[in-house]
Amino acid sequence: MRKLAAAVAITLLTFTPASAENLRVASWNIANLASQPEQALRGHARSAEVYAHINSVISSLDADIIALQEIGSIPGAERAVGQDYDVYFETRCMENDQRCRFDNDDIYTAIAVRKSIKDKVAIRQLDELSILHDDECCTPPRHVRGSPVAVVEFNDQKIWIPSVHLKSACKEGTTNNDDLKDDCAVNATQFDILERWIADRPEGDAVILAGDFNRLLFEAPNVVARLGANAQLFPAMDKRACWKGYRFDFAALKQQALVNNPSAYQGGLEPRIYTPTQFGAIDFFVVSGLRDSVAADADQVEMDAYYSFGDPGSVLTKCDGSSNPFGTQLLTFGRADPSDHCPIVMSITKNPE
């Protein structure tokens, strides 16, 4: 697990530059990233300082290809990755009512490619992932997230790298909760689609699925086994410590939630603060088909210097908008900056001959 212990540390980190000997791939769910500071996307607005933090973190990764999730539009992605990258979004964003130039209260997947290698990278789309979701609230069905795919040649082998963000709310793969069964069905279908898509890649090519799978894949080896021959998960569990170093003041957070949203906690309900440490390992590289002549390793970046959690008050609700408690506790969400997810970064290196 790599730490960014202070802002100055970012400038001191050194990595092997991208070359014929090394390929670096990163992935980060930046959680409802709006196009600009002080503009909210799904209720999450960030300061200019936080945007600068996000850009500093991404710069420190020194990645050739970056899979991005939960981005509102092209300007937000460009602000995050900086001028050294070109950004490519999923089809669903490029064809929305804003043509992906402005936020429209939805979130999308994207791929950023370092400009110095863009002539070696082809961009494709995995639109099949963007299936219709018909939820329990009987709202109009909507398409879930598709995936842009970077195809790069490394060590004389083509590697397909989709930016993946599968349907949320079904980390275990099954549920007895009627409100979540539609989410589980969509997530399962998306894994079926990925399995077929990987099997359809040309013989000899490799695949690196990069992103947020919304599944606890360390606990689902049968699912992983379907995602390509000898599929492996990265980073390892012992290299993950996202938000583990942050101290949550739960007493203060609960009090703030009661002030922010008093009407939600009627009838003796009390806030149950949901933190980024609670949703487990759901961000992965799923790697299959890499040749034995290369070595792969990955890490998760913990952003100690930049963590901030506060402003709780958004709560879990039913379809009619009323509170949806668990006994006397009501799940309550706060704002996590820079994100409730931490970046992951992978290095693929040619083995010495």
Notes on the protein architecture:
This protein has 353 residues and is an alpha+beta fold. The chain has a 7-stranded mixed sheet with strand order 1-15-18-2-3-5-4. Strands 6-9-10-11-14-12 form a 6-stranded mixed sheet, with no helix packed on it. Residues 5-18 have low confidence and may be disordered. The protein has 2 domains: 22-240 and 281-303 and 341-350, Endonuclease/exonuclease/phosphatase (Deoxyribonuclease I, Chain A); 249-278 and 313-337, no CATH class. Strand 2, helix 2 (48-61) and strand 3 (65-71) form a beta-alpha-beta unit. The radius of gyration is 20 Å and the shape is globular. The protein is 19% helix and 32% strand.
